[in-house]
Request: fold
Amino acid sequence: MTSWAHSLIRISNYEVETLQKRLAEITARRASTEMRLAVLDAEAEVERERSRHDTQAGMMLSAYLAGWKARKAVAESDLTTLDAEEAGARDALTSAFEELKKFEQVAETTRLNRLIAAARRETAAFDELGLRKRAS
Reply:
């Protein structure tokens, strides 16, 4: 493999690895946000249940639910943002993989062309050697 092809493949591999790490980080943040939404829903259910048995908690339930709705809206907004970020990261990773494969194919084609050229030179040398032996 030529040095330029090796360098391009190394750079492309680095880019793919970087994008994979970025996608993994986005996925972790997404899981965290989904967990945050689940916890918010569970806390709201606990507060509703508590308000059924405690009149003072029942009076404060509407204020709690207003705050809960605001926190839930923020978490859902974060989730929407993460969805878009994840889609962008997946697209970038896909194009980086495609670019890497192109470089690998060019390197392989170059290697095969060199082998074919070497085989042709070897065949030509043997043909010349055979003609010389025949002529003698």
Notes: The mean pLDDT is 91. Residues 11 and 90 are 19 Å apart (CA to CA).
